[in-house]
Amino acid sequence: MPLALLALTVGAFGIGTTEFVIMGLLPEIAADYGVTIPTAGLLVTGYALGVVVGAPLLTVFGTKVSRKRMLMLLMGLFVLGNLLSALAPTFGVMLAGRVVASLAHGSFFGIGSVVAAGLVAPDKKAGAIATMFTGLTVANIVGVPLGTFVGQTVGWRTTFAIVAALGVIGLLGIAKLVPAMPRPEGARLRRELTAFRNPQVLLAMAMTVLGFGGVFAAITYIAPMMTEVAGYSDGAVTWLLVLFGVGMFLGNLLGGRFADRALMPLLYAALGGLAVVLALFTVVAHDKILAAIAILLVGALGFATVPPLQKRVLDQAHGAPTLASAVNIGAFNLGNALAAWLGGLVISAGLGFTSPNWVGAALAGAALLLAFWSAALERRAPAKDTASAAADRAGADRASESSAPAPTPVHH
């Protein structure tokens, strides 16, 4: 594994920790600022919306500078946001800190995916992307429970200070280890926007919104579902989320392993399996052991779609992958926000704490239908379109080779 990938993974670990640790610290933060839990929940919503907005805006800015410099600037923004959260005297400042930190999220993973793919041989690209995303999944196994524990025992401000320190380590690692990657020739906003004229790019992003929406429909309301329906104690919720993180980690590894050789079959299996498991979750949520297994499977099947969907966007965007890649990261968070809203609607309608699982199953099923549609469009595409796309990719590869270092082989 190129050491530069390790630097990207550390940055991803810090971002994953700050994104998810807030859910375990809402009661402490709400008590400190004298606000209600639903009001404190704006810290989650604000972060998700900041990712959706920040991904395209900062990536557009990033077309004007080298990718390495942009990654360093994004980690600097991440550090600033978390320091602001750690020191915030009022809830409004805390919310601002969350938004500042979130602005870096989408662009970091979007540009980082392009950089990671460029560090390795062509047949290892999905694996390199998955390696970077491992930082995000490991954050849910290690960073989130540790951050929650520190926040509950020492104080939540300490948690955010530690996350800021992680950002500094990531920044220094990128500065030291990521090779200089000049802005590719022809990297202009107009060129980047052309990627969105390709229906396959839009379909991949729609699959991201719906597929990941399926995951978060269930996970957003996992605490009341597990305590009120399955009969777990409040304290057990943290470890159930760790189990979800283990599932994410395993699914991400699986996705990275098979996306390079069987991308669409992997998507069919993961999205279809996710729809089935979420539908069954409404029933098995009443049993502690079966509920825990379902949580593990939701994490695994959901994150098995991440490397193939990200790679599909990179492949279909041809010579203009950076903005499309970052917007796809925003799509994950759009799915998060959409699913949380829809899940809240069905609970408010009196359908019970397991009802968001039906919403998740419907969203995952819709993503599966889009995957079949995408494949059908690809099969019907005239040969000349395929030849044109291949020529575009070849031209992009030549431009990339002229401005990027030679790929570093991955050592297993």
From TrEMBL:
Subcellular location per the Swiss-Prot or TrEMBL entry: Cell membrane
Gene3D superfamilies per UniProt: MFS general substrate transporter like domains
Annotated InterPro entries: MFS, MFS_dom, MFS_Efflux_Transporters, MFS_trans_sf
Keywords for the protein's UniProt record, in alphabetical order: Cell membrane, Membrane, Transmembrane, Transmembrane helix
Pfam families: MFS_1 (PF07690)
Main location: membrane
The keyword Calcium is annotated on this UniProt entry: no
Occurrences of domain Major facilitator superfamily (MFS) profile (ranges): 4-379
Membrane topology: Multi-pass membrane protein
Stretches the record annotates as Disordered: 387-412
Regions that span the bilayer: 42-61, 73-96, 102-121, 128-148, 160-180, 201-224, 236-254, 266-283, 289-309, 330-352, 358-377
The organism's place on the tree of life at top rank: Bacteria
PANTHER family: CHLORAMPHENICOL EFFLUX PUMP RV0191 (PTHR43124:SF3), PURINE EFFLUX PUMP PBUE (PTHR43124)
Protein name (Swiss-Prot/TrEMBL): MFS transporter
The species this protein was found in: Streptomyces tanashiensis
